[in-house]
Design goal:
185 residues; 4-stranded antiparallel beta sheet; 4-stranded mixed beta sheet; globular
């Protein structure tokens, strides 16, 4: 399955090093939806490239038009990375009503912005499903977009399919910006 992520990209870094396409930034985690850096590192990815880009640009909603500086983070250009995860990889699908029932969860607990709740949920699921490499859930930006939180135990199964530095004229960047109200000038 093809998955997409964005990251501040360092062309000189090896894939697993900081700035590399397969780097799990555990040392920088703790505030994200499913972060539990004492237990695991994680990557936030999406099934749709537009979703991955929109998640990266969401902090700029209301900031006016899209600018080139919004495509730079930590001094590095943002890149859109296509990753391949084998279809047979085990994923806890929180977008599946049957899975929610089996786990005793309600959609409101999955989609809340309360990080103490979502981080505890992720920690519990990580422990209860030792063979699962990810959690699958819907984007809070657009419910039809599906995101995954990849646990670092997925790393040996991931392959980089493509890396593209994001540019203002990329269709995927323009589509994500338009959804967020960041129409380019």
């Amino acid at each position: 399955m093809r998955l997409w992520r964005t990251l501040p990209f360092d062309r000189s870094a090896a894939a697993e090093e900081p700035g590399g396409a397969l780097w799990f930034p555990r040392s920088r985690q703790g505030y994200g939806r499913h972060d539990n850096p004492d237990l695991y590192g994680c990557l936030y990815v999406a099934e749709d490239a537009v979703s991955a880009v929109a998640e990266a640009l969401a902090a700029f909603r209301g900031a006016g038009p899209l600018t080139a500086s919004m495509l730079v983070h930590l001094g590095s250009p943002l890149a859109l990375v296509g990753l391949e995860l084998p279809d047979e990889a085990i994923v806890v699908d929180l977008d599946d009503p049957a899975a929610l029932v089996a786990e005793g969860l309600r959609p409101s607990r999955v989609a809340t912005r309360a990080r103490d709740i979502t981080q505890r949920l992720a920690s519990d699921l990580h422990r209860r499903h030792p063979d699962a490499v990810a959690l699958r859930w819907w984007s809070t930006l657009e419910a039809s977009w599906i995101n995954l939180t990849l646990f670092d135990r997925a790393a040996p199964r991931l392959a980089v399919a493509e890396v593209t530095e994001m540019r203002m004229d990329d269709a995927v960047v323009r589509d994500a910006a338009a959804l967020l109200g960041l129409a380019p000038v």
